[in-house]
Design brief:
A hairpin with a 2-residue loop joins strand 4 and strand 5. The chain has a single domain, classed as Jelly Rolls (Sandwich). By secondary structure, it is mostly beta strands. The protein contains no helices and 13 strands.
Length: 151
């Protein structure tokens, strides 16, 4: 298992990647490689047809002071595309009210391939087209993304 964390509170723009900038638990097998702050490359190194990973994204999020109080969401992205099953939404009642989000996705990577995975601030207002999402959110220090090889 590999785990990466944020070491300070960060402001993340809509559709922006959460910058996980510290290694809490390194990957000793070479299957999880940090490519940029918040972006991890997963390898399909296997003698089988695929490698399967469980990716967990968790953190405390809030609307920053001066932001529009709307539903906010975190999601796991694969090669920059939000995995719909991983979208977790928190609806704050006021600015700077933190809520905890935890989401998990199972990702299958074909043998010999590599794919990037990251945590993203996604639009939490998709169910209500009349609502405009707040342009950025606060992600609290200690948010993390972990990757576990399960097959």
């Amino acid at each position: 298992m590999a785990e990466y964390v944020t070491t300070s509170d960060v402001l993340v723009a809509l559709n922006g990647t959460i910058p996980f900038n510290s290694v809490s638990i390194p990957c000793n097998t070479g299957n999880v490689i940090p490519a940029a702050p918040g972006v991890l490359v997963l390898k399909g190194n296997t003698t089988n047809r695929f490698a399967r990973y469980r990716v967990t994204l968790q953190g405390n999020i809030a609307v920053p002071e001066g932001g529009d109080v709307t539903p906010i969401a975190l999601a796991i992205t694969l090669d920059g595309v939000v995995l719909p099953e991983s979208v977790a939404i928190f609806t704050p009642q006021e600015e700077e009210e933190y809520g905890h989000i935890n989401t998990v996705a199972t990702i299958t990577i074909p043998c010999g391939c590599c794919m990037s995975v990251s945590g993203t601030y996604a639009d939490g207002t998709e169910d209500d087209p009349s609502t405009t999402p707040t342009p950025s959110i606060l992600v609290r220090r200690g948010a993390s993304i972990s990757v576990e090889r399960i097959a």
